Amino acid sequence: MTEARGSAGPNGVTHARHAPGTPCWVSLMVHGLAATQEFYGALFGWEFRPGPQQLGPYVRALLDGREVAGIGRLPPDRHLPVAWTPYLASNDVDLTADAVRLCGGTVGVGPLDAAEAGRMAICSDPSGAVFGIWQTAAHLGTAITGVPGTPAWNELVTFESVTVAKFYESVFGYEEEAADSPDLDYVGLHLDGRPVAGIHGVGTALPRDRGPHWMTYFEVGDTDDAVERIVGLGGHVLRPARDSAHGRVATVADPEGARFSVIENPR
């Protein structure tokens, strides 16, 4: 994670409606729903309640009664990766899905209504990275950030940033800010001057078994402790804990192989 993130107070920030283009939700599709709930419940202290079932069994994860993420069971007829997927806010999912197609992306699921919660689509950008689009109705998205157990940042890991950044700029109206270093292929995506996501081009360092993908960072109170618990719960360390300008961070995978990062936000 290279781009600066917004800060939050020690008690977190409670969110209302998200501006179009803002990452507003993260969702994970897995094979073993019950086992995955046990893993993330033990790791982040999440509790769960049922959510919309349009794509099959689905639960929403709650922290102190506020929604932070979703986990669903992969439908047998859908060839989707076991991966954390960010949803980007839209005022009109159908129009945004049309823009995705016009700009060289693909719409794999939807647009469709998720009961009374809202309207959604699952898409991929021209490099193949999967993301979602969410149009709010009853469900506003992630209700709290800035405390352990909540999403802290979303970053696209891809071959190179320039081409795919133009896609996201065209679809969602982002402003781009390239990294200062000529040795770093990184573009920050901004809305109204505020960083909301990043694109990191890593070239041949991209995992061959994964391809371009969005990486979700979750805040933790202690990165080293979180990594130890992840391993104890059956997860894996992909990149050991290390210090960064934004806090101590590690890249890991859950027992089904879904990649994510944990970061300890320096106070």
Automatic annotation (TrEMBL):
<protein>
    <submittedName>
        <fullName>VOC family protein</fullName>
    </submittedName>
</protein>
<dbReference type="InterPro" id="IPR052164">
    <property type="entry name" value="Anthracycline_SecMetBiosynth"/>
</dbReference>
<dbReference type="InterPro" id="IPR041581">
    <property type="entry name" value="Glyoxalase_6"/>
</dbReference>
<dbReference type="Pfam" id="PF18029">
    <property type="entry name" value="Glyoxalase_6"/>
</dbReference>
<dbReference type="InterPro" id="IPR029068">
    <property type="entry name" value="Glyas_Bleomycin-R_OHBP_Dase"/>
</dbReference>
<feature type="domain" description="VOC">
    <location>
        <begin position="150"/>
        <end position="265"/>
    </location>
</feature>
<dbReference type="InterPro" id="IPR037523">
    <property type="entry name" value="VOC_core"/>
</dbReference>
<feature type="domain" description="VOC">
    <location>
        <begin position="22"/>
        <end position="136"/>
    </location>
</feature>
